[in-house]
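Quick one, tokens below:
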């Protein structure tokens, strides 16, 4: 399995428009963060997790190959705004999109030309097949088994995903202990950590992400994503983390 972190930034990205802090002015590519997304490749199966407004820019960096599926964590703009840019991939094959019911309902409303409730597809629209999924109920993309995990984004229930020994969780503030059993045996955890200090009503901080990871004894490596410019320069911030915890960066490849 190979996971490519396509984007590791928050909804504003880094650099932030109008900001002149040292991070936003940095020339280090690891301090340039597009909106959060990841590509999972297992054999010849390629699965995208979230499809935000930077999707086109993210995919221009990679060889153009088929996409088998898109997993959506939730309906927020920074996670779904790039769905129309899937059109070129639909020239290869139709793309299956998996999301929970509230996301499915919202996409019918916000992107009806891509996801019509009835009738024919708008000419030129991407050929996307929308599938409703629910937390805890595993499903397959080809031979790859995926288990959705429910987490709370403030008061909004959203999804994380477990694929084999890897779990991908973003925009989480909390998780019910009832979900913990779904993470047993996970060795690689990709999880959101907004910044070091303060508080946030719907996102956990880096310390909270690390503390959460300690609930699971099999975890070998932790990668922090959905990071704001307030975390500081990448090379400095990384030195403050435990050895097995990594501040993820755009383009990073995790090979399992």
């Amino acid at each position: 399995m190979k996971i490519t972190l396509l984007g590791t930034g928050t909804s504003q990205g880094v650099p932030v428009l109008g900001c002149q802090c040292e991070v936003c002015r940095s020339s280090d590519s690891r301090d340039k963060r597009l909106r959060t997304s990841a590509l999972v490749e297992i054999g010849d199966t390629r699965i995208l997790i979230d499809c935000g407004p930077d999707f086109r820019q993210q995919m221009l960096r990679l060889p153009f190959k088929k996409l088998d599926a898109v997993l959506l964590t939730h309906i927020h703009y920074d996670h779904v705004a790039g769905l129309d840019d899937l059109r070129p991939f639909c020239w290869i094959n139709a793309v299956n999109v998996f999301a929970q019911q509230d996301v499915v309902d919202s996409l019918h409303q916000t992107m009806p030309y891509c996801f019509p409730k009835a009738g024919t597809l708008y000419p030129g629209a991407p050929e996307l097949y929308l599938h409703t999924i629910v937390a805890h109920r595993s499903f397959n993309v080809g031979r790859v088994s995926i288990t959705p995990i429910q987490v709370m984004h403030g008061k909004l229930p959203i999804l994380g995903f477990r694929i084999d020994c890897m779990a991908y969780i973003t925009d989480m503030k909390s998780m019910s202990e009832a979900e913990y059993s779904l993470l047993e045996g996970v060795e690689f955890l990709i999880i959101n950590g907004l910044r070091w200090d303060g508080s946030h009503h719907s996102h956990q901080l880096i310390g909270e992400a690390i503390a959460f990871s300690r609930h699971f004894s099999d975890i070998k490596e932790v990668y922090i994503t959905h990071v704001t410019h307030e975390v500081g320069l990448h090379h400095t911030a990384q030195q403050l983390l435990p050895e097995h915890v990594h501040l993820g960066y755009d383009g990073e490849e995790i090979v399992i």
